[in-house]
User: Fold this.
Amino acid sequence: MRCRKCGQKAVINMRQHKLALCCEHFLQWVPEQTERFIQKYKMFARDERVLLAVSGGKDSLALWDILLRLGFAADGLYIELGIDGDMQYGQRSQACARKFADAHGAHLITVDVHRKYGATIPELAQLTRRGKDKPCSVCGVSKRYIMNYVAREGGYAVLLTGHNLDDEAAVLFQNTLHWQTGYLARQAPVLPATDAGFVRKVKPLCRFYERETAAYALLRGIDYLYAECPFSVGANTIYYKELLGRLEAERPGSKLQFYLSFLQAREDGYFAGAKDDEGLRSCERCGQPTTAPGSCAFCRMWAAVRERKRESRGGSENPVVTQACGR
Ligand code: Q46
Ligand code: ZN
Ligand code: ZN
Assistant:
């Protein structure tokens, strides 16, 4: 297989694009395409301050690398969840994020959930009894809260995540199976900021296959964490990724077609009536946006933790945990 641009030996064949490229031209093609998507979906402008959520995995570090190569002054945000286990997932992922930032002279903000709020994510799941074995629901609430909180407080115009096409297609498949029209309405490369206080969220890699972001990270020599979070084992989205992978193997381009057709339907207004960001208001405790009356899910969760810690101490409250909202 030869590179379509120069005839040298190709390192990747992207059958959905009928495009094979050598290392040099692939490493040029990825940033060019990313910049095209940033412009096409009006994600952000050159003079806007952008914050990228960094997990230490291939996608977020590849995106950080691409943005820096394109000349965007992107800062990183790493959230230390306190998920370690046998393979020390948290420590190793943080080390990858820190190493990348140091090597590129980039600014990395770190929020340690245990230090800031008083419990790790697995402890939080135990204390709130929400997903004792699988803390993904409290983890998701916490990550979304912290990302928005840091972006707002830091005056960033936009929050970026490294979701790739495989991630987006799997979530789309799940939402379509259950016809979750509210979720479908909110699945997009760009979610605009809301008056109630959500910052703009964008996914510049949403049209790249996972194998492309992995190839980019490898060819750029980025030291990323291969391992996934131990709690991701058995997740529905992983199963849907496998199913879609089988479809893709038989019919190259199916995943991209599925996602792009959905975006077109969305643009044509098929989900316009299903938007569920109406009714957003400010949390009475922390001021972050919520649809719940009174306190937001994050504040309620930490209030429950305080309550349980108070019970276990026979009445004296943990002073660290009282700062749950970070304000
Ligand atoms: S939600 Fe669940 Fe992830 Fe949190 S606990 Fe791990 S797998 S990190 S994307
Ligand atoms: Zn070439
Ligand atoms: Zn709140």
Summary: Residues 35-278 form a domain with the Rossmann fold fold (CATH 3.40.50.620). Strands lie at 12-14, 19-21, 50-53, 74-80, 108-112, 158-160, 190-191, 200-202, 281-282, 289-290.
